[in-house]
Amino acid sequence: xxxxHLTPAQRKEKRGEAHHLDPxxxxxxxxxxxxxxxxxxxxxxxxxxxxxxxxxxxRPDREAALAALADKLSAAPVQHIGKLLVLWRPVPEKVKxxxxxxxxxxxxxxxxxxxxxxxxxxxxxxxTVFGNQRVTAGGEIKRAKTRVTSVKKxxxx
Length: 157
Known about the structure:
Layout (H helix, E strand, L loop, with lengths): L7 H11 L6 E3 L6 H14 L1 E6 L4 H15 L2 E6 L2 E5 L18 E7 L9 E7 L3 E3 L5 E3 L7 H6 L1
Parallel strand pairs: 1-2
Antiparallel strand pairs: 2-4, 3-4, 5-6, 7-8
């Protein structure tokens, strides 16, 4: 039995959300393999709600595959209609890694300049930009100006 149970109202909502989705996992003649479970797990991690197409003509085989997928992947079976199976599992929250290496420092920037006539290839330049510099919309390097503070604030400090 799957670990997640949906109420009929939740199941109806998920069916509505899945209506416009395309199948992301296809199950062929070999049935459920480790590769199928791996792909379905990756799709559930990325999307949460997925459609699976099974090319088997046997309805009991499709029902067993839906139950097996739901059990092994800890997902809720939402719908089985024809050869389409719909599974749902909450998407895990992504861990944000705070990076301290984004401080001002040299970094390499690619600048793309198109020819004025349009007959030649665009030129690609790699330029090192330092912490006190910025790249303008025209592709030029300019120094960042120091921020001007008012006379009153200077007097307070």
